[in-house]
Amino acid sequence: MEFFSHEVEYEYVHVLNSERVKSVDVHPTEPWVLLGLYSGVVCIWNYQTNNVEKSIKISESPDMDLDSPTPKFTLDGHLKGVNCVDYFLIGEKQYLLSGSDDYTAKVWDCETKSCVHTLEGHTHNVTAVCVHPELPIIVTGSEDGTVKLWDAITYRLLNTLNFDLERVWAIGYKKGSNQLVFGCDKGAIVVNLKPSSLNLPTEKQGQKD
């Protein structure tokens, strides 16, 4: 496998030290990140002031009575359980991205229902996957404590990041920016990627639905 030798530049924007963060989502206009914590608490973190604006304790799950419709198709390829998925477009072509306990992420062609590439390199379960809406990169997070950046066109590994926050559980982004948010065992972090250091085409080649 071919790897880029250059370093990916990024800067820390804000870090919140907390319990394990299992999910993240970024508000499109306000400096807020919605965090789902391992204890069952959902909180709104203002990453500009570094304050938690509000916390909600989810004490129990609502009763649900859902039918189990037959799936349209099944993508079979991972050796163990699938933890996360994401959907993205390259041009007019539709793809799915999946992360698994087999330590890999896979890119699937929705039309042919086949795996077009396997992203290998993590040394533990892949827990979060994301295709950046502004940059042609795939982002994967793992229980090995690392985040990996991949070229969304060639699937080459660009760089491996480690924020020393232990296991990575969730990835979020803010549309219209180069920011990424990661939820980890020891809290959450917002980083700002520097596109010039990624050695990628300036024109966006992939986009979110």
Descriptive report:
0% of the residues lie in helices and 51% in strands. With 209 residues, the chain is mainly beta. It has a single domain (10-57, 77-188), classed as YVTN repeat-like/Quinoprotein amine dehydrogenase (Methylamine Dehydrogenase, Chain H), CATH 2.130.10. Strands 9-8-7-6-17 form a five-stranded antiparallel beta sheet, with no helix packed on it. It is globular, with a radius of gyration of 17 Å.
Question: Could you give a quick summary of the protein structure above?
Answer:
The chain is 0% helix and 51% strand.
Radius of gyration: 17 Å
Indicate the CATH topology. Methylamine Dehydrogenase, Chain H
Total beta strands? 17
Arithmetic mean of pLDDT: 80
Q: Fraction of residues in helices?
A: under 10%
Poorly predicted sequence stretches spanning 5 or more consecutive residues? 1-7, 59-66, 202-209
- What oligomeric state do the depicted chains represent? single chain
Structural category: mainly beta
> Order of strands across the biggest sheet?
9-8-7-6-17
Please write the CATH class name.
Answer: Mainly Beta
* Element order: H for helix, E for strand: EEEEEEEEEEEEEEEEE
Number of helices: 0
Number of domains: 1
Distance, first to last CA: 30 Å
Proportion of strand residues = over 45%
The CATH superfamily is identified as: YVTN repeat-like/Quinoprotein amine dehydrogenase
Describe the sheet with the most strands: 5 strands, antiparallel
Protein name: Coatomer, beta' subunit
Pfam family, one: WD40
Keywords: Repeat, WD repeat
Organism: Quillaja saponaria
